[in-house]
Amino acid sequence: MKLLIYLFNIFIFFSFHFILNTYYLTADTIVEKSLSVDYENITYDSGIEIIKSAIKQKDFQIAETISRKLLEKYPDNSEIITILARLLYWQKNYDESIKFFQKAIEIKPSDELYKELEKVKTSKELYLIDQLEKEGNLEEYESKLKRLIESNRAIYDAGYLLGMFYVKQREYSKSLEIFKMLREKYPDDIGFDALYIESLILIKDLKQAKTELTNLPEEKKQRLIKSREDLFYRVNEHRLDLKIENYKYSEIFNFEKEYSIFMTQKLKKAKFIFGFSNVQRDKKNDNLFSIDIYPGFFVRKNYGNFYIAFSPSPDLVYRSLISAEICSSLKKSDFCFRYQRMDFETKIINIIIPGLIFYLPNHYSIEERVYIVLEKKTYSIMSTLYHDFNHRFDSYLSLSFGETGDIIRELVDLDKVFTGGIRTGFEYKITPKLSFSSEFSFYKKKYHYERVGLKIYLKYWN
């Protein structure tokens, strides 16, 4: 029995090897055949056969060479002229392709040739428009795409390019209009369904995006799950977070524990995050209540939030914290400015935090923040690198250093001594409604303490 299995495996191996060799030999034979053609004595039929074989192998240059040689012998043959026009079109040589299509029409006009000629002219126009974007002439790029759509030519291609242009420019309301139009015009194209729903997500209309996904026919929904599963992970509005934090101090403190619960609620365009934390250290116990508000009234390309937190009887943390931030989106970056006021038992601290976020290729981004404590005239710099591997897994690495902490919970954190830290973490979305996150941190404040911490999050979306 083992011998039979062994012989069978050998048979499969050599059969597979034979098939591959046959395939590559066939391709090589076609090329050799085309290169060894006797162009002086080539016949019409043999030339057409070689051209068609080369086209099947996508050897367009070889097919073009032979077509031109045949055309020298048969200068008024409409079939050869049409084949050459198509070959030039496939190689994006639009000007010559147009010339040969026009010649073919002169010899033997047909509706099909007129349609192909218009297709080449439109492709040339789209190519020239694409060059405008590469040159940075964005106003003319947008204007010409609009005119192409209004003329009812190349609505599919020009509409797609215009919609994606608006996404790049963060003009999400405009991209929504374009993809809605394309979706209605091409109802069988699931790609436009996906782009329309994504535009809804980008303008923060998660409720409508979720409705659109839910209302898709089952067959379309299954196709979209295979091609754009990420959309199903991005449409849930409400969230419940559970967080556990553990810290080990090397000097003045022992262990610190913090248990938190956060609830995210969407109300029209605004988002509210209600939080409660319990902090425990050295037999002391603080409760911290918070609310984070993301209003929906900011103008296009701007966003921000208001944050308020307070502790009724603080022993370990501040009495209250009030923070406001506004960010403005640029081409490939965001500029942010945050003001933070902290009220301790014995003093009030004011902090300003300017920052920049740079969006890089391959789903990377870098955030740079400077924390400036006005009363102490101290600063801290924090750099964070983010990477979204895919819609289910993302990670980050953060480094900070300065004369004060980027995390301030009590007055000792404000002392003007060297302070540095490192944090790294990840989030894994188990299902569209459940994710697990973790963060490891190391923090050093000279003359005071070193702190090692671990955070664990569970998040549930609805």
Number of domains: 3
Beta-strand content: 25-35%
Q: What is the β-strand count?
A: 14
Which regions have little confidence, pLDDT < 50, spanning 5+ residues? 1-34
CATH superfamily of the largest domain: monomeric porin ompg
The helicity comes to: 40-55%
Largest sheet: 14 strands, antiparallel, barrel
Shape: elongated
Top-tier CATH class of the largest domain: Mainly Beta
Give the ordered list of helices and strands. HHHHHHHHHHHHHEEEEEEEEEEEEEE
Topology-level CATH name of the largest domain: Porin
List keywords for this structure.
disordered N terminus, 462 residues, Porin, 3 domains, alpha+beta, 14-stranded antiparallel barrel, Serine Threonine Protein Phosphatase 5, Tetratricopeptide repeat, 41% helix
Could you characterize the architecture of this molecule?
The chain is of the alpha+beta class. The chain folds into 3 domains: 2-127, Serine Threonine Protein Phosphatase 5, Tetratricopeptide repeat (Alpha Horseshoe); 162-233, Serine Threonine Protein Phosphatase 5, Tetratricopeptide repeat; 239-461, monomeric porin ompg (Porin, Beta Barrel). It has helices at 2-35, 44-56, 60-73, 78-90, 94-107, 111-134, 138-150, 155-168, 172-185, 190-202, 206-215, 218-227, 230-233; strands spanning 239-249, 255-267, 270-281, 284-294, 302-310, 320-329, 333-343, 348-360, 364-373, 378-388, 393-402, 419-431, 434-445, 449-461. The protein has a 14-stranded antiparallel β-barrel. Strand 6 and strand 7 (333-343) form a beta hairpin. The protein is elongated and about 100 Å long. Residues 1-34 have low confidence and may be disordered.
